[in-house]
Design goal:
By secondary structure, the protein is an alpha+beta fold. Helices cover 27% and strands 33% of the residues. The protein has 5 helices and 12 strands. Helix 2 (23-39) crosses helix 5. Residues 43-213 form the TH1 domain.
Length: 213
């Protein structure tokens, strides 16, 4: 009888907790569950990020240039964050915005959309097992795409989680060790090397590879 009452009591407590969870809290918990499935035990810094709530967005819609808002008219903006984009050729760093809507991801420069990735065509998302904020968005090989997108995000766990949830492609996120390949365009591939050092830095090595420390 005692064991039965304990089970009933626990079920009642769980029921009360679930009924008391707000819609905002539920979304937060769902995102954290997905982040745990992707990063727990795989990427450095994840444990320290657990108690940090995900933000709805890092920038408001008003922070996006009106011309860009006109170009993506009809698509509800779900998340905006500043990023640093690295050119596929030469790896020059450029400040950009990553805008996530209900159906696509946009890499934005001021009033221009530099690249659009429809979630339906998204091939994968890669990041390293180290504490860097690099994420590579893999796109299909077609004339509409210039190649894979290399970004550096300050809030890597939050950004990747929101991206893969909006695209409904959690299973396509890979946490790699050592190196990863990315498509430059026209059938060419590049290599990114991840290593450990005393100071974080990202640079083009003498062999032409992008090195992330």
């Amino acid at each position: 009888t005692s064991e039965m009452l304990q089970k009933i009591c626990i079920r009642n407590l769980v029921r009360k907790y679930c009924r008391g969870v707000t819609a905002e809290r539920k979304v937060q918990l769902q995102q954290k569950v997905v982040a745990s499935a992707i990063f727990r035990g795989k990427k450095e810094g994840y444990l320290q990020s657990i108690n940090q709530p995900f933000m709805d967005t890092r920038l408001k819609e008003n922070d996006v240039n009106p011309k860009v808002l006109q170009l993506i008219h009809g698509e509800k903006i779900k998340y905006v964050t500043p990023v640093v984009k690295y050119d596929r050729n030469g790896f020059k760093a450029r400040e950009r915005l990553l805008v996530l809507t209900q159906s696509a991801a946009y890499v934005v420069e001021m009033a221009k959309i530099k690249q659009k990735i429809d979630y339906a065509t998204l091939k994968g998302i890669s990041t390293s097992n180290l504490s860097d904020g690099i994420v590579v968005i893999h796109v299909p090989e077609d004339n509409k795409q210039k190649g894979d997108v290399i970004l550096q995000c300050e809030h890597i766990f939050e950004t990747v989680t929101k991206l893969c949830m909006l695209a409904n492609k959690q299973n396509l996120v890979k946490v790699v060790q050592g190196s990863l390949q990315f498509r430059v365009g026209s059938g060419k591939e590049g290599t990114m090397i991840f290593t450990v050092g005393q100071e974080p830095q990202i640079f083009r090595a003498k062999n032409g590879q992008l090195t992330v420390v």
